[in-house]
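In full, the data:

***
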Amino acid sequence: MPHPAPGDAPRILLVRFSSIGDILLTTPLIRALRARHPGARIDALTKRGFAPLLADNPHLDAVLAPVEGESLPALAARLRPARYTHQLDLHGSLRSRQLRLLLPGRWRGYRKHKLARGLLVLTHRDTYPDGTPPVPERYFEAAEGLDVQPDGGPPEFGLGAAAFAEVDAFLGQVTTAPARELVALAPGAAHMTKRWPLEHWKALARTLGAEGKRVVVVGGPDDVDAANEVARVSPAAASAAGKFGLQATGALLARASALVSGDTGVMHMATGVGTPVVALFGPTVEAFGFFPYRAPSTVVQHDLPCRPCSRMGGPACPLGHHDCLRGISPDEVTAALAALGVM
């Protein structure tokens, strides 16, 4: 619902074009801005494919996206009449920097600590400044002058009624288990080195089924084959990979008692709907700023001297062994679920 903006209230534009986790991690800032400036105009700009992540956020007045074929100059011309008083670049990409040139006004960004991140990957020496906050709190640097602070809450992934209706129809076909017995698994990841071995996922699915849990395997179109392979190992499992868009995937996660995931956007989707997470971290580390934020979670990781090996994962383990994730056993993950009260 639009919020009326008195003439002296801020008019705020937040820009984050991609991707799933990065966008959802902007929502603590959005929530803080609305709490501090209830009469402000607050709009978010992202890619059209990611707009559902923010479409039902109660603190936004509008979610904006480039239309198909729209050039960056045309987009800037479309935004200009809004006369934003504060323009927050939460991406820091070439595209967002070009937009800053085309849309004059008061712009601020945030520190990505690229040098420290690069040194950590190349030398395994942590040169991040003491007290460097996680990414959701780094975003607040872009709101300097707006008098906002993190409220200690998790990300928010607002969901519409249609998403829950779609998911409940699917769940009615595959399980009669109550939500507390449903565990979601997300075996996919954009980069191979962030993927827990498929055999481990299958072993976990078997264990969950033997413990009386129902399993739903989630993922996008690229994850269908892996998800189907995991689901086939247990009559208690079903695959939802490739069946739903972002909103319905969020609703499915909201219906689960827990999610097991790698360092992916699905992990942040779960924290955004209040579902506890067991997160498996391998090539990436906490210093990068993307651990589950302010939500019930357990991170399972092994402290190896070769970690981190990349800033976002890669096509193959640089050393050929992939021990960072291969060495995490299904029993460790089951124990982490038990620690969250799921088993």
About this structure: The chain has a mean pLDDT of 95. Residues 11-143 form a domain with the Rossmann fold fold (CATH 3.40.50.2000).
